[in-house]
Write a structure and sequence with these properties.
Elements lengths: L11 H12 L2 H13 L3 H29 L3 H8 L6 H34 L8 H9 L2 H20 L2 H28 L4 H9 L3 H7 L2 H14 L5 H6 L8 H29 L4 H10 L1 H13 L5 H34 L1 E6 L13 E6 L2 H22 L7 E2 L2 E2 H28 L2 H8 L10 H25 L1
Antiparallel strand pairs: 1-2, 3-4
Helix pairs in contact: 1-8, 1-13, 1-16, 2-11, 2-13, 2-14, 2-15, 3-4, 3-11, 3-13, 3-18, 3-19, 3-20, 4-5, 5-7, 5-16, 5-17, 5-18, 6-15, 7-8, 7-16, 7-17, 8-13, 8-16, 9-13, 11-18, 11-20, 14-15, 16-17, 18-20
Bound molecules: 4-fluoro-L-phenylalanine.
């Protein structure tokens, strides 16, 4: 592959917007608050922060190092860094994870888009029964599939424009807007009379919930931190392959992780105060918060927002926030597979003799072609839509599409966040810690010796022992316990 010609992100802001855009997503707004509600409030937040610090950030950094040094899609990066070895299977594993995540993520993203449109047209405001509205959507695969297809097409449209004019530009436009909408919503929520109770629920340790969750808190927090940081599956590795030489990897990893974590906490600081302040029945609200997931974002919150003055504006803001968060994440997921197909897959087609430069075979001439980005994006999108269709059908009340007792949708969520991403994290830390030449590790961290190299030994120790062993223990204990 022509490595010199590889495109790079144009600006530092673009890099932060793209990486943080990937990280900040439905995971922050849809999953973090309900995990915290289920797993003991502040206790979960604390364990989560520890997972981010000890496992998440070191592996984010490892993905940055590998991606920039390997300068290719996630499989190509391993091949470039370990020629002749089989490590590129780690890359295939990552690509599979990206595909499976998109299967269910696009469906939820489709819901957010539908709710944004319903908010804009005012239809959401005229709804009497929000549970029925959402149940209708879940039981109506055609509607779900339509919105999912629209969302996938929007994602594909951006990625087809390429790294600079597509991903970077879109992230630079969307991320500031997302943060602004988030701050406005947060200011509104925490100034509601009675908001304090919600904040206390989120930030005060709740021993009763925590003890019933037990060891599950650890696996939940680990899975959530990986999912939220987009780490462990080649997404950040692919983005880092577009980083220029002067990008400071440690600083970028720190900024991205801080933004992601702040947004998760801000989302909690919107949802819990709103939930407590606007309800007449805090008991059942607590139950809804714990059940989490769709119930929270698509039933409880829209219903609560209706009791505010200027309700329509608040629900437009809320769903705009979700749409923006989803879209900046789906483009990063799609790029993992697009980069792979565009760079690795070749098709051989017959070509008329007069255009052929290489030697003819039996009179038929063949030439290898790369798959153009827009074409790659279209083919992959069709695959995602097919997977999304299965997910949508699995959500209906009477659906038989179950795997191990879970809906196919929940199964994909479980397998990717709780298994594949942590396992991917183990692969990445072992490869960077044990196989990768220390000189490359040091050169990437210090930008070829132009910036000081600090804590190198500690970092190397984390990659070799702490991260892989820690993640493995949490995984095993969580699965057996
Ligand atoms: N980090 C995203 C979120 O929190 O919603 C989800 C995600 C995006 C996971 C990209 C993995 C990924 F590669």
């Amino acid at each position: 592959m022509d490595q010199k010609a590889r495109v790079t992100f144009g600006t530092k802001l673009g890099i932060i917007a793209a990486t943080a855009g990937s990280a900040v997503g439905l995971g922050n707004i849809w999953r973090f608050p309900s995990q915290a509600a289920q797993d003991g409030g502040a206790i979960f937040v604390f364990v989560y922060l520890a997972c981010v610090a000890f496992f998440g950030i070191p592996i984010v950094l490892a993905e940055f190092i590998l991606g920039r040094a390997g300068k290719a899609n996630s499989a190509g990066t391993y091949r470039n860094l370990a020629p002749g070895k089989k490590f590129h299977y780690f890359g295939y594993f990552a690509i599979l994870a990206a595909f499976l995540i998109m299967g269910f993520y696009m469906v939820v993203s489709g819901w957010t888009l539908e709710y944004l449109v319903l908010s804009i047209t005012g239809e959401l405001g005229r709804t009497q029964d929000f549970s029925a509205l959402f149940a209708n959507l879940r039981n109506n695969p055609t509607a779900q599939i339509t919105w999912m297809v629209i969302f996938t097409a929007a994602t594909a449209g951006i990625v087809a424009f390429g790294v600079k004019k597509g991903i970077e530009l879109a992230s630079k436009l969307m991320m500031p807007l997302l943060l602004l909408v988030m701050l406005i919503l947060c200011a509104r929520a925490v100034t509601l009379p009675g908001a304090n109770e919600g904040l206390v629920y989120l930030f005060a340790p709740n021993l009763e919930n925590a003890s019933s969750a037990g060891m599950r808190i650890l696996t939940d927090a680990l899975g959530q931190s990986f999912f939220s940081l987009s780490v462990g599956m080649g997404c950040l590795m692919t983005y880092a392959s577009y980083f220029g030489k002067d990008v400071r990897l440690v600083k970028t990893a720190g900024t991205m992780a801080s933004l992601d974590t702040s947004v998760a906490i801000l989302a909690g600081a919107i949802i819990f105060p709103a939930a407590f302040a606007l309800t007449t029945d805090p008991g059942s609200m607590v139950e809804t918060l714990k059940t989490g997931g769709p119930g929270l974002v698509f039933i409880a919150i829209p219903q609560l927002l209706q009791s505010l003055p200027a309700a329509q504006i608040w629900s437009v803001f809320f769903f705009l926030l979700l749409v923006l968060a989803s879209l900046t994440s789906t483009i990063s997921l799609l790029e993992v597979i697009t980069a792979f197909v565009h760079e690795e897959v070749r098709v051989t087609l017959p070509k008329p003799i007069r255009f052929q430069k290489t030697k003819p075979e039996n009179g038929v001439l063949h030439q290898e072609y790369r798959i153009a980005r827009p074409f790659a994006v279209s083919v992959i999108s069709i695959g995602i839509i097919v997977l999304g269709i299965f997910c949508s059908y699995s959500l209906g009340d009477h659906s038989a599409l179950k795997v191990f007792g879970m809906s196919f949708f929940d199964f994909l969520d479980f397998v990717t966040a709780k298994l594949m991403m942590p396992i991917g994290g183990i692969f990445i830390s072992l490869f960077a810690g044990w196989y990768l030449d220390k000189k490359i590790l040091a050169a990437e961290l210090s930008n070829e010796g132009t910036i000081p190299l600090r804590f190198f030994k500690t970092y190397s120790f984390i990659l070799r022992f702490i991260a892989p062993l820690g993640i493995a223990v949490v995984l095993v204990v969580g699965l057996v316990g």
